[in-house]
Design brief:
Helix content: over 70%
Strand content: under 5%
Oligomer: single chain
Order of helices and strands: HH
Radius of gyration: 22 Å
Distance between the termini: 29 Å
Shape: rod-shaped
Keywords: Signal
Largest sheet: none
């Protein structure tokens, strides 16, 4: 697979995953804890999932940046090679 296609593919994945709001299901409730405790647990889980998504997106961005940098280096090397001939 060529690099530009790979970059586009990764960008599409990044965009699609950033559109979802992930929610983890509630664990079984023990002896009916009060409603505010449930909300706090849900909020903590949602925050943890959002952090994981952000970290994943940062990794995707770093990979894309590396791909673009390599592509640019390859183009520059090829152009320099042609100019030297």
């Amino acid at each position: 697979m060529s690099r530009p296609i790979m970059i586009v593919f990764l960008l599409v994945i990044l965009i699609v995953t950033s559109q979802f709001e992930w929610r983890q299901p509630l664990l079984e409730l023990d002896a009916a804890p009060n409603l505010s405790q449930i909300h706090q647990q849900v909020a903590k889980r949602e925050e943890a999932v959002k952090e994981k998504i952000i970290l994943s997106q940062e990794r995707h961005i770093q990979r894309l940046s590396d791909l673009v940098r390599r592509e640019n280096e390859t183009r520059n090397a090829t152009e320099t090679s042609h100019l030297n001939k």
